[in-house]
Design a protein that fits this description.
Elements lengths: L1 E5 L9 E6 L10 E7 L4 E6 L2 H6 L6 E7 L6 E6 L6 E5 L4 E7 L3 H4 L20 E8 L6 E6 L5 E6 L4 E5 L4 E6 L6 E6 L5 E6 L3 E7 L15 E7 L1 E3 L8 H8 L13 E3 L5 H6 L18 E3 L14 E2 L5 E3 L3 E4 L3 E9 L9 E6 L3 E6 L2 E4 L17 E2 L1 E6 L2 E6 L8 E4 L6 E6 L5 E6 L4 E5 L6 E3 L55
Antiparallel strand pairs: 1-34, 2-3, 3-4, 4-5, 6-7, 7-8, 8-9, 10-11, 11-12, 12-13, 14-15, 15-16, 16-17, 17-19, 18-20, 21-22, 22-24, 23-24, 24-25, 26-29, 27-28, 27-35, 29-30, 30-31, 32-33, 33-34
Length: about 525
Amino acid sequence: MRVKTVQINWHDKLPIFSVDFDHNYVNSSGGWRFATGGGDNNVRLWRLRTPSEREREPKQPAVEFLASLNRHTAPVNVVRFSPCSSKLASAGDDGVIIIWRQQQTTEETSRAPPATMEGVLEDDGFVEPEVWRPAAMLRGSLADICDLAWSPDGNFLVSASVDNTARIWDAREARCLQVLADHSHYVQGVVWDPLGEFIATQSSDRSLRVYRWVAPRDPREIKSGTEVVSLFASHYSMPLAGPEQKGDEDKEEENALADGMEGVELQSTEVLGDVPMEEAAASALPVTTDIVTAPTTTNRSQRLFHDDNLASFFRRPSISPDGRLLAAAAGVQRDRSARNTSYIWARDALQAPPVLSLAGHAKPVVATRWAPCRFAAIKHTDAPTAWLADDTDTRMMLAVASQSSVAIYDTSMGAGAIGLMSGLHYAAITDLAWTRDGSHMILTSIDGFASIVSIDQPSAAIDIPTPLADVPGCTSGTTDHNRESLSDGAMSTQTQHHATSANNKGRKRLAPTLISQL
C-alpha cells in the first residue's frame, strides 16, 4: 500500500468536503474519473492517471483536471455519482441539489469561439476537456445539505440536512417524495442499501435510523403524497457489559439518555413501524422481538454515538456492496474508557444491537466507505475469524476515516485493521472514495488537499452489479445476492447483548482489536 498527498490547487486552497468516483467511466486512455466538492462553491472533475502513466511521466501530477462546475452559490458539501450512469449529484450550504450531465463534445465544439464556450474557457484561454451542464435542480431543503445517496437504480436520491430532516427525491421528475423528520438534530449522513430495501440516516442527536422502502420501484407508479419509506429501527444505546463501578461520567451519560427525545421509550433497539411478522419472515429479514430496556441497577446501557459537541460536519455511514453489513460513523464504545469506534450491523439484525465494533481510533470517526466490489478470498493456514463465517470464497474491504487517520479492514482478516494511514493532513479528514476495482482510494481534508492511496490487492476484484437493472433508468447488469441469515455468520462484539447466553455457547468470539496496537 502506498499513499501520497497530491500538492495541487484543488479548490483554491479552500477545504475539500467530498469526493466520489464515477464507476461507469470509460475512457480510451484508461484511469478513473472522480469529482470533488469544496469551499470555493465549485464542483471539479478529475481523472486519476493509471499506474503506467504515472511511471512514464513521474514529474506530472497523478491527476488530470477535466472540468469545473460552478452553479452553486455556497460551499459544496457532497458529490455523488449515480450507480447506473455518469450523472453527478452535488449539494451544499445553498440547500440546492444539482444533477449534472456531461455534454458530448465534438471537434467543432472544441474549436468554437469563446462566445459559445461559456463556462468552458478559463481566464488564461485553457479549454476544459469536458463540458457538464445541470440536468435538474432539486429545491425544497430549508437549510444546508450535508450528505446525499443515490438509490441503486439511479431513480431516487436521499439528502441529509441541518434542518433536522432527510428527504427522498424523485431524481427524474425533480420532486420531493417524502420528508423524514424523525431526528431531533442535524442529519449529517445518509446511505442507500445496494439492494434497494433500506435507507440509513445518522444525526448529531446521537442516533442511527433505518427506513424501509415501501413504495413501488418504478417512480412512474408513485403518486404524489404517497409514503415511500417507513421507519424500521432506531439505535441510541446498547447494553454496557462489565462489572466496573459507575463514575460521574457514567451517571451523566444515564441522566442525558433522554435528552431531546421526549416521548421516546428508552431502549437499546427501538423497533418501529408496522411490519407484520409474517411479512418479515417471508422476506428473510426476521424482526427481532427481544428489546433491551433502559439501564437499571443490573442492566446498564451506553450511548452508541457522539453528541452534537462533535466538531464535524459529517457522520457518513455506508453499506457493503452485497448489502449485508452496515457501517456507522461517530461511534463511542464504553468499556474501561470511552473509545472512538465504527459499529457494524448485520442486514438481518438491523433492529438488534451492532454485531461488531471497530474501536481504537484516536479521534472520532467521520466517514466509512466500502470498496464497491468483492475480492477472491485469500487462503491462510492460521486465518483469523472472518466477519461472515458463511462466506469463505470472497472478502470485502472497508475504509474507516477518523478526523486524523484512515484504517482499512478486510472482512476475512478479523476485527483488526490491516492498514493505517495517519499524519497525512494538517486538518480533519472529510470524505473518502474507492475506485471500482478497489485498487485506489482518495481521501479529502479541510486543509484543502487530497491524498491518493494505491493498494496492491493480492486477489482479483469481483464486480457486484446493481440488482435492479429491470427498473427503468438503470443500465447495469444483475446479480443474485446472497440474502441468507447473518445472525450466525457475523462476529459478536465485546458488548453484544446476552453474550453469555446458552445460544452463544461454543461459538468462537473475537474481541475488537485496538488500531493503536498495530
